[in-house]
Known about the structure:
The chain is mostly beta strands. The protein has a single domain (5-380), classed as Porin (Beta Barrel). Helix content is 4%, strand content 63%. The chain is built from two helices and 21 strands. Strand 12 and strand 13 form a beta hairpin. It is globular. It starts with a helix and ends with a strand.
Amino acid sequence: xxxxxxxxxxxxxxxxxxxxxxxxxxxxxxxxxxxxxxxxxxxxxxxxxxxxxxxxxxxxxxxxxxxxxxxxxxxxxxxxxxxxxxxxxxxxxxxxxxxxxxxxxxxxxxxxxxxxxxxxxxxxxxxxxxxxxxxxxxxxxxxxxxxxxxxxxxxxxxxxxxxxxxxxxxxxxxxxxxxxxxxxxxxxxxxxxxxxxxxxxxxxxxxxxxxxxxxxxxxxxxxxxxxxxxxxxxxxxxxxxxxxxxxxxxxxxxxxxxxxxxxxxxxxxxxxxxxxxxxxxxxxxxxxxxxxxxxxxxxxxxxxxxxxxxxxxxxxxxxxxxxxxxxxxxxxxxxxxxxxxxxxxxxxxxxxxxxxxxxxxxxxxxxxxxxxxxxxxxxxx
Length: 381
């Protein structure tokens, strides 16, 4: 498929088709590698779910990530992603992983994760099965999925359908024994469909829907509710059905400037409803060797029906999780990328080296905020 720089520019802005046409964008036998470093700093003193009642949800996360992609031939691609999260969280120090709140706190924690995806193009379709896992002290997950992408009308229209199944295990906290429990089962099934249409050389529209079914242990090990002055572990239903519908429009004003607007509506069987609007502006700079993304996102949601900061009686289901209460939020971000071009090393020649950097600030009305910074180094060889 012949793709102009302008169309590449639009696709880079929206990411609608980029991940699904990887096989067409890389030459056979090509390797792509990217090392990404994320630093996340969260501040909050208003978490009603924190056991000691002080509401401290401060957290610091460092996450190095490795992305590897190999174009086996013109129609086959193999992708491997791996990450290690290292973090400290003030709410975690309240509950010791072995001895409960009587201990000194669990201190820093780690999570390891990896995923493997295999993409095969057959005619106008691309099939992508994938497997992944993640593991930390109180949560383990194994998941597998399949994505199908079909291209129609001379590649002007694409339809994507995907499904994933998560076989998870989660620990809870026993406030009587002051110990964490054994792992308990949790299952998640996700289904997504998305359609995108290239209207003109300057415009792309897309729309989609996501359905998620959760069952099993849906509580968090760290969450509690204050009932008559006593902390009680949160109690949530064994099932949750979640639905999201979204649409996006992208317009390229010229070869150097494009903008996008995205809307998402969400609701679930716990009676949480949410609306999100996100806009972005992408500028091509340095004679198209670099880009600058500016983004803004507004989100507003209601609380789940079981939310309460304090209670006087014990209902069947209850939570004080600040993520499940009503709030509105704002997020602004800037992302920069630059291609350095080919480079010779002592090991091998590299076709292209590129740098990326970004920063995102988030603030919500229930007094939680975070700052995420990112730096990446990539190579094509």
